[in-house]
Every structure is written in C-alpha cells, then in structure tokens.
Design goal:
Layout: E1 4-8, H1 13-24, E2 28-33, E3 49-53, E4 70-73, H2 87-108, E5 112-118, H3 141-159, E6 163-169, E7 171-173, H4 180-189, E8 194-197, E9 203-204, E10 206-208, H5 209-221, E11 227-231, E12 237-238, H6 239-246, E13 252-255, H7 270-276, H8 284-294, H9 296-299, H10 307-318
Helix pairs in contact: 1-5, 2-3
Amino acid sequence: MKKNILITGGSGFIGSNLANYLAKKKFKVIVIDDLSVGDKRNLNKNRNIKFLKKNINQINSIKIKEKIDCCIHLAAKAQILINTKDENQYFEDNVTGLQKTLNFCKKKGIKKFIFASSASVYGDTKNKKVTENMILSPLHYYAFSKYIGEKIIKKYCKLNKMNFYILRLFNIYGEKSNAVVAKFIAQYLQNKTITIYGNGKQSRDFVHVDDVIDIINKLIVKNLTSNIFNVGSSKSTKINQLKSYISNSHKSIKLDKRFDDIEKSIADISKAKKILKWSPKKKIENGVKDMIEKDYLRLTKIKLDTIESQKKLIKSFNKKK
C-alpha cells in the first residue's frame, strides 16, 4: 500500500517538485502552503495531490482524515538578505511554525519527520569539507532559525518516539528555483547585467533538486533510525565559473560582498552514501543547460531587483556586522 505524505511548503521550489514526483509514483500527497512564496500552479493536476491553503502557524486547525505516514517540513522563510523589520517573522515561521508542526505530528500519530535544514548552520568552515559532526556556528537569521529548529526536533522527537531525519541542504537549484543559479540565468535571458557579490572567487556546493528528491524518497521508503545527512554534490564551484556555464561573454558587475559570505562551501556526503546508498547524479554544468531550456519561459518573466536596490540591501545587511 502506498504511503500518505504531508508536505509543508509544498507549492514552493523543492516542495512542488517533490509533490509532483511522489504523486506520479502513486503516493497520496497532502500539501500545506500559504502561497506567500510558492504558487499553486507549480503543482501538477493530479488526483493524488490534495492542496490546503494555510499558514504553517495554523496547521493545528487543519482537519486531515487520512493516516499520515511521513511529514516533510519544508515551510520556512529562506531569504538571507532581510530588513530588520522582517527578523521577527523569521522566527515566527521558522521556529514557532516548526514547533506547531511537531505538535500536529504528535496529535496525528505521525512517526516519521523529515526536516529541511541548511548547510548555513555550519557557518564559516574555513574551506574545509564539512561533515555532520562539525560544530555549528550560524552567522545570520535564516541559519540561526535552522540551528534552533534542529535542536527542537532532536529533543521533541526523542521525547515523543518519532524518527527524524535532518537534511542539511547545500545550494539547491533546478526548475522553479529563485536562488543564485536561477538569478544569473534570468539576468542573462532578460539581457540584464549579472550581479556577483564579492570577487566571484568564492565557491559553493550546488546540488540539483532531482537529487534532493531522490534522497527524500529513500528516507520515506526505508525504515531507519533518526539521523542527520549532508545533501550536496561534494564538489565546489566558483561563482565566476557558474557564470561561465551560463555565458562567458554576458555582461556582469561585481558588487560588495555580504559580511558573512564564506569563501568555500563543500559537503562531505560519505554518510549518505554509506547509509542510504545515495549519491547525486546531475553535474552543475548540465543542470544549468537544463534550466535554460526547460525553465526558459518562467525565467524570462520573473522580477529582478535593480543593481541599485541590491547595493542598498547589501549595505543595510552589512551594518549588522
């Protein structure tokens, strides 16, 4: 019998790709999303997908008759560059919302909880390939909210006999995303200047959303004890190199870097390889080409911040140092 899966934040980038994949595999998928960031149109018209429009802080008011086998908690605010007035909302959604979701899982008897954490909980790792047992040192509000979330989950799930799986996601890209890869491609397709923060020599570990879905699917179907996994490609790509995968000749500009911008991010994924037999399949250069081809229409239409607005936001952000 196929499982019933609850996805919070299920109409966003990762969530919609995941929901569509699971529904195609005949899982019954219940999506909760307030559409503040996501878009219901991201979800395929499939009878295996049930959509509920609710803010995560309202989850306990939701009536679900089905027995839920697994909750995948993706709902969160994820911007790094934020104004001071938005900081309280970060903790309301990312911390309080998480606590309420765990309470809901307890009430519904859900015994498997998958949490989308972030590689940003590690902070500046001084160019080291990061392992799951490294000391965590988050540098900004989003990272700190994920750090607190991990601690809440470990304690709550232990007390309530729930299995948890924390996924420390590195730089996820793919169709429907809005992060740096999507931004660069959109700037290229809209014939706007590509904006690089810092000198572009800093590097990131980019992993395709399809590979993220693969590891989540493995966790859904396997019976494992609670654990934490890095989810990355185990390869590091310089930002300037990323730009070259899109276009060598397209115009670009170097803006000030964020004060907390680390020089190198790269995941050690040996734990996921050993326990889950998982390894990423899509290379960044091929993933970029796929996005240009398959996500072309959306990326030509998304709204881009002006160079001046980006400069202003970075300046405001850097005052927090």
